[in-house]
Amino acid sequence: MKYRCYASCAFGMEGILANELRDSGFENVCAQDARVYFDADIQGIARANVFLRTADRVYWVLKEFKALSFEQLFEGVASIPFGDILPSDARFPVDGNAVHSALGSVSDVQSVAKKAVVRAMQRVYKQERFPENGNVFNLYINILKDRVTVALNTSGAGLNRRGYRLKNAQAPLKETLAASLIMISKWRTRDFYDPLCGSGTIAIEAAMMASHMAPGIKRRFDAQSYDNEFKKAFQLEREHAKSLVIPPQMQVFASDIDRKSLDLAREHAHNMDVAQWIRFDRRDVRDFVQPNRPASVITNPPYAVRMGEAKEVAALYRDMGKALLPLEDTLVFVITADEQFETKYGAKADKRRKLYNGNLKCTYYQYFRKHR
Predict the structure, then answer these.
(1) Which of 26, 151, 198, 330 could be stapled to 326 by a disulfide with Cβ–Cβ 3.0 to 4.6 Å?
(2) For residues 258 and 169, what is the distance between their CA atoms, to the nearest angstrom?
């Protein structure tokens, strides 16, 4: 049986995620703001969770309807056959949001929806109360312009949590955004460099892609505990994911001037079992040596977001330009929140793309042509 699902993502990443879904064989793919809809059976829900690199979470849509009052919200949610979906001991926390809606109070939306779920379950289980001491079924109520979407969050924790970044560095880049940066660059067979690698996220995501390692291969998902059919589906997808891993055919290099960051990057790479495929080196980006064969440089340098950093970061960007600007067959990609980056770097980008690093609006500067 096919279900309507959607994968959430960061604003600006809808097209990348839609391509991921199509490439994975999903049908009826439709991108909207910060989400991409698709059809999937239970095996497909498992596959999406294990293999998608740029999605935040995967949701199973239970119903969509219009609600202008809390009474309409209650009736719409209560009409869903939750007794056929949730076991009697299920824990079913309700989360949600409301944008441009007559129902502006999210806490009231959650409370009303929770009571409606109980009403729906009472029709089947014929009991007054539910212990909620079993497996977790996270419900998400999204209301946009009075249109309600009731869905199950099959992922649980965000899909950016691959399981390797157990310690956070300063200003970490989300794993899903790192994967998106690599996909936008269309990197395939060139050697890969991140000369300001920090805690290693971009290089680790590159090594995972190069080795065909699924991002969800090491973590758990809420839906794998729904029932035996879901459990089996996730087991099959993990086994399939493990069978696909191969040594990369290209080199992945990661360097940073900060020893602690580099140690953390090595630890994260080890946690994901890709450390043997990344060459780590303590080096200042100013000492970057242009590769002697085709290469891609993708990096996330420091931003001047705190007082007193502007001069230091401006000097870094200037020196980056001197070291990184393509000479022969090197492509350079830099994400930063600094709108004056090109001036400081010393060259106009061949292409720019607006992205969000968390809530911070950034630009992805892309250099394809020789600039010297």
Answers:
(1) 330
(2) 12
Instruction: Write the pLDDT tens digit of every residue in 6-15.
Output: 999 998 899 9
Contact 89, 134 (CB under 8 A): yes
Query: Is-contact 333 364, C-beta < 8 A?
Result: yes
The pLDDT-based confidence of 308 (bands split at 50, 70, 90) is: low
Q: Are strands 191-194 and 147-153 parallel, antiparallel or unpaired?
A: unpaired
Helix H segments across 79-200? Answer: 82-85, 106-125, 175-185
Whether the predicted pLDDT of 167 surpasses 80: no
Beta-carbon contacts of residue 108 (< 8 Å; ≥ 6 apart): 70
Instruction: Go through 321-344 and write b for each residue having 16 or more CB atoms within 10 A of its CB, e for each that does not.
Output: beebbbeeebbbbbbbebeebbeb
Q: Is residue 158 part of a domain?
A: no
Q: How far apart are the first and last CA of the chain?
A: 57
| Residue 109 clears pLDDT 70, i.e. is over it | yes
Same domain, 249 and 117: no
Q: Closest Cα partner for 47 from 318, 39, 36?
A: 39
Judged by DSSP in three states, 131 sits in coil
Task: Name which residue leads in pLDDT, 167 or 163.
Answer: 163
Q: Do 83 and 206 belong to one domain? A: no
Confidence of residue 172 (pLDDT cuts 50, 70, 90): confident
Q: How many domains does the chain have?
A: 2
Residue 321 counted as domain residue: yes
Within a domain: residue 165? no
Co-location of 200 and 319 in the same domain = yes
305 CB-side CA count, 13 A: 12
Give the max Cα distance, the chain.
Answer: 76
Give a yes or no: residue 169 inside a domain.
no
